[in-house]
Structures are given as C-alpha cells and as structure tokens.
Hints:
Layout lengths: L2 H19 L12 E5 L9 E3 L9 E6 L3 E5 L11 E8 L10 E7 L8 E5 L15 E8 L4 E3 L10 E7 L10 E11 L1 H22 L8 H19 L3 H4 L4 H23 L27 H4 L9 H37 L1
Antiparallel strand pairs: 1-11, 2-3, 3-11, 4-10, 5-8, 5-11, 6-7, 6-10, 7-9
Helix pairs in contact: 1-2, 1-3, 2-3, 2-5, 3-5
Amino acid sequence: MNLLKKCTLLLLSLLLLLPAALPVSAAGDVKERSKMIYDGDVPFGDGVADTAIKTQGAASNSFLLQGFCVQALTGIDVDISDYDTLEMDIWIQTADFFTLLFQSQFELTSSGTCDVNEMSWNTQRFADYLTDGSAKVGWNHVAIPFFTASETGDKIDLHHVNFMRWYFVQTEGIVPEEGLIVKLDNVRATNRWEMERDKVLATVQPTLDLLGSLDGVTQVTKKNVDRIRQTAEAARDSYDSLTTMQQNVIDPEQYKLLTNAEKLIRLFEILDERGEAPEGEDETEPPETVPADPQDTEDPNAAASGDGPVTEYNEPLIFGITFILVLLISVIAFFAVKKKEAAGNKTDGGAV
C-alpha cells in the first residue's frame, strides 16, 4: 500500500471517530426568538378583558362561545417573516374542547380581511400541537408550525400580518346551550420548529456528515463498516423515537441519507460474500482470527503456529519509525565515509 493510500485511510478514520467523540448537541447554535402578534391586553370581537386569568401582560381576551361566533382582530401590522411557528395560550372549560365537532378555524392574513392572502388552521388541529401532550381544563399552550397551515386566496405576506380571526360555526347540539367560556392570550410567532429541527438533526448529523465526507464506495474500507452501521442505527433509532410532529421537521432528502447508509452496509456485505475488497483497503493485512477454545490464547506456542490472535500493527507509526531509522543510518554512513576519506588524504600527504 502506497503512502497516499495510507494517509487517506488515516484521514477517514479520524473523520469516522470524530463525530462519536463530539457531544450530540453540536448543532445547538439556534437561539430562541419570538414576536408578539396579540398580547390579550385589549379585547377584540365580543371579548372582554380578564385581568385575573391570564398568562402574561395585563389581561387575556375572554369570550363566550355560544352559537355562531366570530372574533376578528384588525389594526395590526406585524412582521413575522423570521419565524416558523404560531404559539398561543388557550383557556378552556372542558378538556374535550379541541375534539368537539363544530366547524372552527384560526386565521392570519396580510390582506386586512379574511380569505385573502391567508394561512389558517382548523381548531381541532390544535389538539396535535399541545405542548403538554393532551388538553386539560384551564390553560393550554399550542405551538403549531406554519408549514401545517392551509392557504386561501394566495400566499400570506409574513412581513405584514394585519388581520387575525377565530370563528366557530355549526355549534348547535355540540356546545352546551349556556355556551363555553374561551380565553385567548399570548399569541406570538416563534422559531420553535427551527429549534426542534436543530435538536433533532443534532442526533442524526454525525451520520449525515459521515456520508457526506465519503466519496462513494471506493474510499470506504471494511474497517469503516461497523462504525457506519453503528452510527446509522443510532440515527435511525433516534428518528423512530421522535413523535410524528418532530419527524415532520426532518428534511426527507436528509433522511434518505440514513437509508443510503443501510444500503451501503449491505453493499459491503455483498462484497465480503464475493471476496471483493473495495479499493483503498489494505488487502495484505491478515484477518482477525478467534481461537476455538479460550485456552488457545494462553498457549505460548500459539503465535508461532499461527493459531493465535493476529496482532494489528500501527502501519503509519511503523512507517514513520522506519523512515527515521533509515535517515539516521544514512547520515551515520555519510559521515563515516567522509571520515575515512579524510584519514586517507592525511596518510597520503605524510608519505610525500
């Protein structure tokens, strides 16, 4: 194996070992950001300010849901283009509020009115994005990504969100006759899903970086396969353990790399079965052997007979030591020759 191949293998080994040595939270550079859309202090629609039951600021907007109900907020102009998530606090009287089968939608637009340049969510969809996992009587926090919104009347201009509406229809027979009290507070845009994506990708990034650093199959040796397999399996397990909501933040193209890692592993297994070593592997290195009986490892004659375990040598180190020894011997030989020549010249001069 020439020096170039040795250096390539050494570099690849470092690339493989480095992700395992670094902390999993290596991504973790994304900082939390938020922008208030509506603070609840000034009521809108048919709401009233509740200064006692609130989550922040001076009050929450409290309204009675009874029959047809529309709550519309105007007179705002908020730039939320640097965010990816709608968050809010909703106070409810009954834990099944988000599963009641009335027709309801929460809307944001940049047109100053409804149904134009709008993104919206069915209220029932909030049940899947409750940060506490399930609804409860009292305050519930919703964090729903922009990418889950429906679009009406062309795309919203997130630089100028100037209208918000929450409406309920077809509530007869579903909502009690006396109605249900609902409170809204702390409606804001955040980068929560960017942060979630950052944390999730940190668990799989070592595999993505590893696969990205390899130039096809030719630069991978069978020594690397176990490392790739372990990293790919760990990444796959971390992905499978995520909730459906969290899986949505993984770019499908990046997840394909995890699948490709498994395909790469299978390719090496096929090469092993055929006895075809990939280019770049040291084919002269003897395979590791396992003694049939543990006592074989204690046999002093085992190494001589070739039945014992094969010692793996650090080839780059041996190469470096050999180079230094050869250089040292060459220098000694050079000065020895020079000394001999000088002695010969001195003898000749005395004879004359």
